[in-house]
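Exercise: predict the fold of this chain.
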Amino acid sequence: MLEVFKTTSSKVLTVLAIIIIAVLQYHFWLGEGGYLPHQTLLEQIETQTEANQEQKENNRVLAAEVFDLKNGAEAIEEHARLDLGLIKPHETFIQMSTISTQYKPIQLDSSIDVEIGTNEDAPPELH
């Protein structure tokens, strides 16, 4: 078998074959439209598809809200109450706190000076 590689032409053909295989492998793995760029593109497509699904759901919710606002007085009243804080005459407004009973206030480190608000009557630093 070693006799075959003693001639110059067989050595040149072997080197040429190795170079062609290396170039083809490079194009397969890293070239334009190759395996790795293709996998990256598939991941981007999957990410964009998920984002599109979220936007479709948001659009569906907004379309339903627009329909309600165009066709129903109840939706308008609900938005006026929730967003603008409007109440009807002779109506009592009660606001419930959403702070749980497990709420613990934040304790500031006494070594840090903190300026709170612009009230001139209050001292500017907490100790």
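Check your answer against the key: The chain is about 55% helix and 0% strand.
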